[in-house]
Amino acid sequence: MAAVRCALAFILVLVATAFAQAQVVHRKNVPAGDATPDGGSFSIRFPIAYNDVEVSARDPSTSAPATTLFMLTGAENDNIRFSATEASIEGLEVKPMEDFMSGVKQQSDAAVTDIHRETNGGQEILSFALNVPGGGYYFRVVRANNVQYMQVVQFPESARDKATKMKDDFFASFKIIARAPAGK
After folding, report:
1. Phi/psi of residue 62, each to 5°?
2. Residue 62 predicted with pLDDT over 90
């Protein structure tokens, strides 16, 4: 259920008036290792077991096609959750990535730190930490070729040190690849 909430929240950020219409779980409890979502165009080294989920949403006020979110997500015993997502932004009103950062920090008592922005080989990249009461998040947002990718590490305060040690390898292992055929 947490994966669904995370996916829906991400879709709402991308498509303000959209609602989830379909969810497909392609694979569950896949062992840690190199991972590519079914139908996705990225790979990442997942440090824990994960699920491969696809969520589609459509804005009912337009005739635009549904937006599909490809997501890999998993949580470990320390309640550290890793997620990597992909969503096409083609044809959508695309706001600056900083707007996303400002939106997530609107939580009460939230603070954004460690902001890093770069452009690399046609990719826009924004990384930051969000500290909230009881824990935090590490975000890395990448935009390239009308697609937005997001990697997130979520953790309780008790696991902050462990999550911090794991996030650099997780983020650094991200690669954009050719789109995988569905069902492979």
Report:
1. -130, 170
2. no
